[in-house]
Amino acid sequence: MPAVTPPVPAPLPHRAVRGNTGGRTASFALNASVLATLLAASSAPTPLYPHYQDAWGLSALTITVVFSAYALALLLALLTTGSLSDHLGRRPVLAGALALGAVSMLLLATADGAGDLITARILQGSATGAATSAAGAALLDLEDPLRPGRSALTNSIAPVAGMAVGVLVSTLLAPAGAVGVYLVPAVLFAAQAVAVSFTAETAHPHAGALRSLRPRLAVAPQARRALLVAGTAVVAIWALGGFYSSLGPSLVHLVAPAAPQSAGGMVFFTLTAAATLTVWTLRRSAPRTAVTGGGLAVLPAGALALGGLHGAGLPAVCGGAALAGIAFGAVSQGALRMTLTGLPEHERAATLAAYYVLSYLSMSLPAIAAGAATQRYGLATATHAYAVATALLAAAALGALAAARHRDLRGAPDGLP
Prior knowledge:
15 helices
């Protein structure tokens, strides 16, 4: 299949941004930075999990519950506020969510037990869920007709780049204590909340805000087949991300007990950095080709992780994390482009919210199951089961993509890019 950049939604012809190239560029950069900072903050606790376990005697299950509290709160926020910015506007939703994000960072900085961590992560997940779809939709609103594809690419690359930066900064600051790790994103959130109030509104606010808060999933009709075809691959790669984010440091300690504590955080950094580079490298590839390649990368990623448990040690675990990152980057950017191409303005935030609901559900529930399995059967057994499960999901995704391609070759196009 030839490498193409699919068409993207035309920029919103809103009077506040039309003809103001400088303002549009600044707003675009601000919304991209919001996405990156939100996800950087989400990964900041990862290098600190071993410290929390040692200091407070937390089990692997408790750590995955702390991790998943964030993801499940984010899901609830997406289900209730996913389309709120379509009604109220992007600015008020983003400003409120960023203020809540700053509060959650301060709570994390002062936490002294698992209960405080869970409470802070719930607030953080709520803030991220409310802001993610609003910022992502604003990026689509601000699409530059002279740079087609930039909005979809930014929606793909900003989150994974943010996670990479977040876990790296956290790893570097962790020896100085949690306050430094969480103070940086708290200050950034506060500054971004102020900056958002000075940007032009890109949506068309309209009635129905209260009604939109009823939990629901809404996927634009033209995006449903794409999400169905790519959905299993999305589940596989986000499940891998959840494993490395919550139990990755414990896996490093298991295969290399003498490794420094920072090695646990660097494994997740390896995954997110590889994902960021992959999104950028494949930005002009055909979306289905990217998703297919990412699905294929899941299989050796799991094999390398298991190799680390059977004598290959830390290099194999790091190699598995790098391949998992390649899979994550390829699938996420390909699936997003397949899903978002051609969506009208009033359906963007809700469809993005549905995509992230699938993603974070896939990240949180398997992580909790892995934590429970680790507590009952041990981390090695849980890792074997996880690798097999993600391999089966990847195989199912490859089958769905092959079936879609076969329909195309038979002359019955399914509308997928």
